[in-house]
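$ ./design --mode recover --in tokens.txt
reading tokens...
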């Protein structure tokens, strides 16, 4: 797999050669271009974690070029090389988010290598975060699909569960209730529309006692607290965590 490179853009061949040698000694791969259009083409052809551009080039300023870079490759960090007379312009570009850093000529080799190492670390961290975020979205989609399938199955057996003597509810992994049977309605004195979509925390208070039937809890309902025994069964799914929980409640008396 090809390593991400540093793209160096300057209309002076001597500057390109000097920076190529410097970054080569630092263990970095490089691409070069003498103008903005060629550089943008290089950026489309090769993954680059850092673009270093001179501010004063024919046809397109460095800031204008780096703005185009930002649109073409948002994750690539951008550094501007400039003379003392352009420092105010560069600071403004940094404040607008167009440029990550700027370097004043003549540059210090150690500083330039440090910038490259820092940029590579930031780039790699950003890519890892994007991968993790994508995995989280995929897991969330898998959980949603499984939850919808469970809701559909529960609706099919709603009539049967409504004749079960135990209070039954199903909550998602965040504790939001999306199913309750008639026995649970009776325990709380609330109808289904007052239960669904609410959090388990709205109804449960730990009783602080344990016996052979399980932990004693109190359900908060329309008629005040009701002592109950609670049993919780995780609902498995394809993802690593349960999609939710099926819970049963029986009066403690």
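writing sequence...
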């Amino acid at each position: 797999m090809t390593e991400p490179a540093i793209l160096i853009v300057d209309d002076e061949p001597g500057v390109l050669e000097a920076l190529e040698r410097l970054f080569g000694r630092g263990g970095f791969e490089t691409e070069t271009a003498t103008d903005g259009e060629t550089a943008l083409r290089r950026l489309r052809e090769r993954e680059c974690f850092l673009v270093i551009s001179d501010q004063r080039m024919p046809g397109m300023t460095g800031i204008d070029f780096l703005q185009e870079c930002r649109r073409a490759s948002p994750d690539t960090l951008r550094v501007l090389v400039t003379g003392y007379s352009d420092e105010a312009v560069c600071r403004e570009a940094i404040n607008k988010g167009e440029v990550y850093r700027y370097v004043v000529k003549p540059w210090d080799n150690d500083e330039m290598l440090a910038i490259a190492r820092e940029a590579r670390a930031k780039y790699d961290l950003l890519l890892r975060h994007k991968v993790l975020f994508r995995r989280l979205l995929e897991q969330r989609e898998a959980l949603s699909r499984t939850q919808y399938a469970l809701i559909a199955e529960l609706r099919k057996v709603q009539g049967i569960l409504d004749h079960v003597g135990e209070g039954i509810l199903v909550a998602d992994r965040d504790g939001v209730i999306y199913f309750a049977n008639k026995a649970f309605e009776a325990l709380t004195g609330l109808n289904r529309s007052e239960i669904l979509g609410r959090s388990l925390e709205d109804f449960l208070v730990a009783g602080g006692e344990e016996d052979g039937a399980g932990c004693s809890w109190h359900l908060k309902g329309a008629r005040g607290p009701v002592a109950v025994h609670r049993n919780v069964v995780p609902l498995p799914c394809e993802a690593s965590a349960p999609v939710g929980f099926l819970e049963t409640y029986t009066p403690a008396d």
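exit 0
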